[in-house]
Amino acid sequence: MSKINVVYWSGTGNTKAMAEKLGEGIEAGGKEANVSEVYSVKAESLKEDAVLALGCPSMGAEVLEEEAMEPFVAELEQYVQGKKIALFGSYGWGNCEWMRDWEQRLKDSGAEIVGGEGVTCLNEADEDTLDVLFELGKKLAKA
Ligand SMILES: Cc1cc2nc3c(=O)[nH]c(=O)nc-3n(C[C@H](O)[C@H](O)[C@H](O)COP(=O)(O)O)c2cc1C
Fold this sequence. Notes:
Layout: E1 3-8, H1 14-28, E2 32-37, E3 51-55, H2 69-76, E4 84-91, H3 97-108, E5 112-113, E6 119-122, H4 127-142
Bound molecules: flavin mononucleotide.
Cofactor: FMN
Family: Belongs to the flavodoxin family.
Organism: Anaerocolumna chitinilytica
């Protein structure tokens, strides 16, 4: 059974809960999910992953969290050509500009965004969003 890495940053747990639900979907789809906080993962270790998922809330002013996630994504960009990547994250008040920018950035580096766009939710994920993430996990397992 091959593993799918889900790497996330979460300050207050909203994006963490999204990551965990995505992981459940991956396992339901028949693959092992490796759900990790960004602090414990080196971008280089994902070099060979054909499929992976990344999560981060909107921080700063519509940007990725800047201490850990932003440098991680910046380093990962050199490896993403041809990869299938699912994106997700929570936000508090904006218009999801951070997610649109993140999608575009990875597409420009040659990645395919699984599902066409990142999954976003206002603050804590509701049941509908959790269902979407579960289904996305199953889709990742088959990608
Ligand atoms: C320092 C800081 C900056 C934030 N900036 C934004 C922002 O620009 N746009 C937005 O929609 N939400 C913003 N938020 C709200 C978070 O995205 C929101 O609280 C989210 O649910 C946090 O997810 P987490 O629980 O995974 O950390 C910000 C929150 C903090 C603490």
